[in-house]
Known about the structure:
245 residues; alpha+beta; Immunoglobulin-like; 2 domains; 7-stranded mixed sheet; 3-stranded antiparallel sheet; 12 strands; 24% helix; elongated
Amino acid sequence: MSVTGWILVAALGLGSTLPADAPGGAEWEARARELIAQLEADAYAVREAATASLIELGPEILDLLSESLDEGGPELVGRARYVMQQIARRWKYLSAEAGPVTGGFQAKLSADRAAFAAGKPVVLTVELRNVSDRPRRLARMRAVDLEVSGSRFVSPESDGLLSIVRIGAGKAVAQGRPIVLHEGPPHLIEFRNGGPISTLLSLEGCVELEAGHYEAHFTYYARTRKLLEGASRDLKSNTVRFQVQ
């Protein structure tokens, strides 16, 4: 049956409806897990309707579907893989290297190099990309809070958080300041589907890292500061590793 046919089956109420609350909520997750379980229901119509409903949920469902690959029977696993393939086809800008989708966006953090010289600026880049199938808006970042191994340096203007953790023992960071990018009120930017914005996050003048290995990840305050329409949680990036030597 075509995807159109599946959507029709779902609309007729044959076993599946989309979760009522926003992705990430308790009700949403409970209903999503129920839909996944229905992929191996006895009734063919229920299996078809659940498949269509899960495709409509988009990439927010991918983590739960991945879990099901290790737990379900052949019918569930086959349908779960099909759903994942269809989501990847519809959301063609989806990146396996970036963090989970929130409000139609992904955040991808990268280090300018694998190793930085001690005493020299450490520079990371965060890319926010609209990976959905329609235009969306988010607010340009003005400042970014900085957290280094538990020491936090914040600004009331911050729209995100860069968290850095030293791997292994090291000295506590006593002094630092947040990363300032722009001044002025929040400014909304509209992104076409696939549209990205990249921001350099330089630690120069903010904090000095001692020699060692580090992990970093970025959080955009999509939900906390209501910067992204339809976001049920903050937008989180992947984790990157780098060295200071």
